[in-house]
Design brief:
The complex is a heterotrimer of chains A (about 325), B (about 300) and C (about 400). By secondary structure, chain B is mainly alpha-helical. In chain B, about 75% of the residues lie in helices and about 5% in strands. Chain B has a single domain, classed as ABC transporter involved in vitamin B12 uptake, BtuC (Orthogonal Bundle), CATH 1.10.3470. In chain B, helix 2 (about 15-45) packs across helix 7 (about 175-185), helix 2 (about 15-45) runs antiparallel to helix 11 and helix 10 crosses helix 11. In chain C, helix 8 (about 255-270) links the parallel strand 9 (about 250) and strand 10 (about 275). In chain C, helix 5 crosses helix 6. Residues about 1-45 of chain C have low confidence and may be disordered. The chains are: A mainly alpha (about 325), B mainly alpha (about 300), C alpha/beta (about 400).
């Protein structure tokens, strides 16, 4: 892709994202738009962690810190929303800075296990601590960031702005020297260490940034839903973020974004038939992992390679994609 | 500290202590049965079977239908149901599981998909309310001040028999030997003439057999519903991490530790304390010794 | 054997029905969801009035949501079979649109947004639980959509929403707790200390603390312990309470399956005293799980299956969904649809403002399941939006549930 076509596509996408809410008055579609934008923050920030070679199953715990931190600041201390958002994001970052150096020493399945358990402990702590968090019944009547944002369309633009910031930050990091060092870590940790990359410190920094973004999403989600309860931060939610990355494709940030869109839309498409919705969802998960572990991104690349009869189409799809970047 | 000791005082009461022990044994036995199959699949095929609990659920429903609808005596219904489920599951082995052998990460997510299909397929078929498998016996055994429900005792005896049979199988048969070899190093085992495809099938069959048995026993002392598998899976998962992934003695030790922790701490300090303690211990263990108590570190 | 064949038949039918409906919804979803601008395609047949339903159809609360869905489905079939409902000179056939609320705030909001803003539905029954109910009413009230919710949290009714459109569909333990506890103190005189075991989920936490307060007000001593939802082995907790010399156990806030298990384990642990629950009325399932151990168990109950209409409803349910256990949510949601239909008929309009005032004045309405109903709640919640219906305190005798005390609103 040349620079010019890239810019054209970028401008086109920006116009679509800004303009579409005015093409319909259906508030439900605006609502889906908000969900996609907010979910994209979580999915892309988790993608950062995945790119360092760790699959975290406690991303929702950081969302919880962001959400409760922000809501308690606004509701108990009576401070304005921007401060709440900062406190929530900061709380998530602080938690990440505390546990990151410990858990990031574990690799592979051990990291998956410990983050899963840690996420459960956070959820249980929220449930048990009724006086502070309202326990399982949560906190309700959460105020919106500003009365304007009671309108779903307005909230969409708020969510869009934060999503662009978060995804842009992730893309920036992945495209920088830093990102190349991350790839080196994932491909061979010992080798990276030998060539002078401070592996653990690197991973902790990425982890803190990603978890802070998750906290930001949690805060925005809570002030949008107006109700906050621990179910919204259970292991299933963390797992869904992993599934988004997996179904979209873990090799690029696009995978996380495609996965987020897919996972928000799918239940809506199947919502009428809830009783078999889960069976279909299960079948999709199985089939993706068994036959297409590279996710939608990889499938699209294969299809593209089949369609374009260019001579280089015979090269392995991943290698070609890497060369194009 | 005084508060802590006064709470432990409950355990000095012989009636309570007796029940705590019986209870600890029966919980441990069931956790071990589920965890053994889970760790076997992981050790040999590198498959993290997040659908393992659902085979316990299928075992429980098979037992339920055989006793309640066909009126089979439970001594026949139990083995028939368990073997039936394990045999029928070989179809799933062919359809689903074989794609995930030696693909750990893919297996986690893919089998989670199978897990959802089985649970919600079960909801369509059986509805969601809980059912009861008539207890083998309603009687209780009184030994001095200690009260032991007979049905718990039967569960413990059956589970212990199954565990011994499993031990003999793994230690003293050719298939068992081949399985242990494959668990250590698949490639070397293959070069030594072990037919891995066959061994995988045997291991799968045995793992599901144990899960289905655990489910039947679980259904007998608790209740049967399509969501039955969630709790045993969660417990098996913790047991296996505790003992060491892939380690068979580790699963036995982990199951016993967890079962007794739940029973003793739950009695003395309440449910929340018991849940936090088991999670906390496992987290600390993972930090300092991620390969578990009896596992071996991987390079 | 026969019942097995029946079960399979029912499941096949259900699956066929669902896959047909799935095609429909997929098509609708593809049009409405993927092409964002296409919502104007939603064309309503003139004589159809959609009624929305919300409840959990996945996860631990699935049985409640299924019961709600089936109750509403049966009510709509009955109303349509009787010719639909007439308002403003038009006759409407009713149609059910039921969505999963995932038993969470987020799920409740999403489902309500879709019912209200995409399906343009004005009448909703549900959700079942407090978190989704609180989230759903934040969507329905601003849109002037009438919602008959459940959810025990007082905040469902007691909040600062101006001019709300939501009502609560049946008694909560704030209403039936004190009278029953008073009766217990007067009738079961040797009970002094009560052990209360509840899950730490939304229902348990909302119910157990106020209930313990109610007991204390009547002079009882209460020991309260919460456990993690999903626990099946309660013996350690039971032993702990027995060691503290409780005279009776109380289970309110538990799912019926768990209550049945506790009952069985309490008797196996050698406890001989009274066991009861002031709340959680699904007695049939408790009896099924606890078996002979359920003898003497006492419970709050609000369905009288001997009422003429209730009998018919049970037969209709069993013909359609099999002879499994019937959750009390089923008749409650059946009743909810009838309440809504009656209010529409009386308002002679489908404008929600008119229907709401008709609904507010529905006191005395009786479809033959619950006796005459009545709105209360002014003192407790500040609004008269809490439906009261007759309720009972019942005891299990010879494996059957026997009503020992009737309370009328």
């Amino acid at each position: 892709m040349t620079q010019a076509t890239r810019i054209t596509w970028g401008v086109l996408a920006a116009v679509v994202l800004v303009v579409w809410p005015w093409l319909t008055d259906d508030r439900f579609l605006h609502h889906v738009g908000v969900l996609i934008m907010l979910t994209a923050i979580g999915a892309s920030s988790l993608h950062l962690i995945i790119r360092t070679g760790h699959v975290s199953l406690c991303h929702a715990a950081f969302m919880a810190f962001g959400a409760y931190g922000s809501v308690l600041t606004v509701m108990s201390l009576g401070l304005p929303f921007p401060i709440g958002l900062l406190v929530g994001t900061g709380a998530a970052a602080l938690l990440a800075a505390t546990i990151g150096p410990i858990v990031l020493r574990l690799t592979g399945k051990y990291f998956v296990l410990i983050t899963f358990l840690f996420g459960e402990v956070v959820r249980m702590a929220i449930v048990e601590n009724v006086a502070l968090t309202g326990g399982s019944n949560g906190i309700f009547n959460v105020p919106p960031p500003h009365p304007i944002f009671l309108d779903t369309r307005a909230y969409y633009y708020l969510a869009l702005a934060f999503a662009v910031f978060a995804v842009g930050l992730c893309a920036r990091i992945l495209g920088s020297e830093f990102g190349r060092a991350m790839n080196a870590i994932r491909d061979g940790e010992r080798l990276a260490e030998c060539s002078g990359v401070p592996v653990i410190r690197f991973k902790v920094i990425v982890f803190i940034i990603a978890c802070a973004l998750a906290g930001m999403q949690g805060s925005l989600m809570a002030h949008y839903n107006k109700v906050l309860s621990p179910e919204n931060f259970s292991g299933i939610i963390s797992l869904n973020l992993v599934v988004m990355n997996v179904i979209g494709g873990m090799s690029s940030l696009w995978g996380a974004l495609i996965g987020a869109v897919f996972m928000v839309m799918l239940p809506e498409l199947l919502r009428g038939y809830v009783n078999i919705q889960h069976i279909i969802f299960g079948a999709i998960l199985f089939a993706t992992m068994a036959f297409m572990p590279g996710g939608i991104i990889e499938a699209a690349r294969r299809v593209k390679a089949l369609l374009s009869a260019k001579p280089d189409a015979s090269a392995p799809p991943l290698a070609r994609a890497g060369a194009a970047e | 500290m005084l508060e802590f000791l006064s709470r432990l005082e409950i355990l000095l009461n012989p009636t309570v202590l007796g029940q705590v022990i019986v209870n600890g044994i029966s919980l441990s036995a069931i956790y071990i049965l589920v965890a053994l199959g889970f760790t076997l699949l992981f050790g040999i095929m590198r498959v993290v079977n997040f659908a393992h609990g659902e085979f316990a659920m299928l075992g429980a429903f098979a037992f339920y239908h055989l006793t309640k609808d066909l009126n089979w005596p439970w001594m026949i219904a139990l083995p028939a149901g368990v073997i039936g489920v394990a045999a029928a599951s070989l179809v799933l082995e062919w359809l689903v599981f074989r794609w995930f052998y030696q693909r750990m990460f893919e297996s986690m997510i893919g089998l989670l998909g199978l897990n959802m299909m089985l649970i919600y397929g079960g909801v369509l078929l059986w509805d969601t309310h809980e059912r009861n498998i008539p207890a083998a016996s309603q009687e209780v055994l009184m030994v001095g001040d200690i009260i032991i429900p007979i049905d718990r005792l039967i569960v413990v005896v059956i589970a212990l028999a199954a565990l011994s049979a499993f031990y003999l199988f793994i230690r003293h048969t050719r298939a068992g030997l081949a399985m242990r070899a494959a668990a250590q190093d698949v490639e070397t085992a293959e070069t030594q003439g072990v037919d891995t495809r066959y061994i995988y099938k045997v291991a799968f069959f045995v793992a599901i057999l144990l899960a289905a048995l655990a489910g039947s026993l679980w259904g007998q002392i608790y209740a049967v519903s399509p969501h039955l598998g969630e709790r045993p899976l969660m417990m098996a998962f913790i047991v296996v991490i505790l003992g060491g992934m892939g380690s068979i003695p580790g699963a036995a030790l982990g199951g016993a530790l967890l079962g007794f922790t739940e029973s003793i701490v739950g009695t003395a300090f309440g449910a929340a304390a018991s849940a936090f303690l088991s999670f906390g211990v496992v987290i600390v263990l993972l930090v300092f010794r991620p390969w578990g108590i009896l596992g071996t570190p991987e390079n | 054997m026969q019942s097995r064949i029946w079960i399979e038949g029912a499941a096949t039918r259900e699956v066929q029905h669902m896959s047909f409906e799935l095609m429909k919804s997929l098509r609708a979803g593809l049009i409405g969801g993927v092409v964002f601008a296409a919502s104007s395609f939603a064309v309503l047949a003139q004589e159809t009035l959609k009624i929305g339903g919300l409840g959990p159809l996945s996860g631990g609360g699935t049985s409640w949501g299924l019961a709600a869905q089936r109750g509403m489905d049966l009510a709509i079939n009955d109303l349509n079979a009787a010719g639909g409902i007439t308002a403003g000179g038009k006759t409407y056939k009713l149609e059910l649109v039921f969505y999963d609320d995932l038993y969470s705030a987020q799920g409740g909001k999403a489902a309500a947004e879709r019912l209200v803003h995409q399906d343009k539905i004005k009448y909703i029954v549900g959700p079942v639980g407090s978190p989704p109910a609180l989230a759903a009413i934040s969507v329905t009230n601003p849109a002037k959509v009438i919602a008959l919710t459940n959810g025990y949290a007082p905040g469902v009714l007691k909040n600062d929403t101006p001019d709300p459109y939501n009502f609560r569909l049946y008694n909560t333990n704030l209403e039936f707790g004190p009278p029953i506890i008073k009766w217990i103190r007067e009738s079961l005189k040797d009970i002094k200390k009560i052990g209360l075991l509840a899950p730490n989920d939304a229902v348990g936490q909302a119910v157990a603390k106020p209930l313990a307060e109610d007991y204390k007000k009547e002079g009882f001593e209460v020991i309260l312990d919460f456990f993690e939802r999903g626990t099946k082995e309660f013996t350690p907790l039971i032993l702990r309470m027995m060691a503290q010399k409780v005279d009776a156990f109380e289970f309110d806030g538990n799912s019926p399956g768990d209550a049945g298990l506790m009952l069985k384990q309490i008797r196996q642990a050698g406890f001989r005293g009274k066991v009861f629950q002031v709340g959680g009325p699904a007695v049939d399932e408790i009896i099924e799980i606890a078996g002979p151990a359920s003898e003497g168990f006492m419970t709050y109950d609000f369905v009288d299956w001997d009422m003429p209409k209730a009998k018919l409803l049970r037969e209709a349910y069993q013909a359609k969904y099999g002879k499994g256990i019937i959750s009390p949510f089923m008749p409650a949601f059946y009743h909810g649809v009838y309440l809504m239909a009656e209010a529409i008929k009386r308002a002679d309009s489908i404008e929600t403002d008119k229907v709401r005032s008709a609904l507010e004045n529905i006191d005395g309405f009786d479809i033959g399941i619950y006796g005459p109903v009545k709105w209360i709640g002014k003192e407790t919640y500040g609004v008269n939006r809490q439906l009261m219906m007759q309720y009972f305190f019942s005891e299990v005798k010879g494996g059957k549930i026997v009503k020992i005390k009737k309370f009328t609103p």
